[in-house]
Amino acid sequence: MHKKKLFGAAAVLLAVLPLFIGAQTAQAADPPVLFAKAYDLFSQGMYGDAASAFSELSAQTRGTPLACDADYFSLLSLVNAGRAAEAGALAESFAARYPDSAYLPEIEYQRCRVAFMLGDYEGALSGFERFSAKYPDGSSASSAAFWRAETLLALGRSAEALDGYLALLARFPGSPKRDAAEWRLESLGYAAREGRAARVDDFLRAGEERLRASAEAAEPLTEQRRERAYLLVRALRGAYGMQGGWSLPLYADMNIPGLPAAEGERLTLQAQASANALEALRVSRLKELLAAKAETLRLLAQKLEQFAAEVVK
Q1: Are 157 and 145 in contact (CB under 8 A)?
Q2: Sequential DSSP letters for 240-291
Q3: What 3 state SS string does 86-105 have?
Q4: CA 123 to CA 150: how far, in whole Å?
Q5: pLDDT tens-place string over residues 246-261
Q6: How far apart are CA 42 and CA 13, in angstroms?
Q7: How far is CA 199 from the centre of its chain?
Q8: Residue 184 and residue 149: Cα distance in Å, rounded?
Q9: Which of 89-93, 199-203, 244-248 has the highest mean pLDDT?
């Protein structure tokens, strides 16, 4: 009895299974379902797989509005995957295949992105500027402004890039590129502060060199004054028949009119040496503080770069 039931269930299963498999296959081949699956890959950041899925869907639905959507998302997937050459080729053919598509402004923006990715910064800059003039209030206007500033920075035009980031924050305060622009401004500010610290260090080093050169220049003058004093004393001793030979008198004992007292000069030299030592100590401490601040700023820039890697797309 049980065997008969089992055989009956198996027969029913065999009869229903082809219908079930056919329904599943039909559902899997349904274009909207394929689009949803491809878009799910895109949403999860699996851009390479998403690009392949959208490309297959476009080939399957060629000539339909869904094919246009699939090509558009395939282009976005290629750009986000860093496959700039393939994205550029798809962007070139998109306008020819879909001349009336509502995606054309976005395609134009993505072509500028592709030029930037390929290192054609001059072409990217002119493209972003044309796009901003043509679509000043478009959905990608703030992103185009951000990438224009990035392009200026890549060209070494830091001052113009700085103005571009500031203009973006002022005009599009709610832009999705706001965090990335603020990070760039912080990075540029760090570079400026680092440059100022380097200039201060150079100034202090030049000050040390000036002090050293001044001390070296003063030494011959001091020796010349001592020699003049010796010659004067020797001449006076010879003129007045003073005994004691012609040996050089102790400089500390000399008190000759027209020359500073030896003891007073010695004290002055000691005071100057003390002042020089204090200045050198102050310079050393300032350099240590600048080095510590530079290290702190370097660590901050590193953290900001890590943050920006998650923000900039």
Answers
A1: no
A2: TT-SSTTPPPPGGG---TTS--HHHHHHHHHHHHHHHHHHHHHHHHHHHHHH
A3: HHHHHHHHHHHHCCCCCCHH
A4: 13
A5: 444 444 444 444 444 5
A6: 38
A7: 20
A8: 10
A9: 89-93
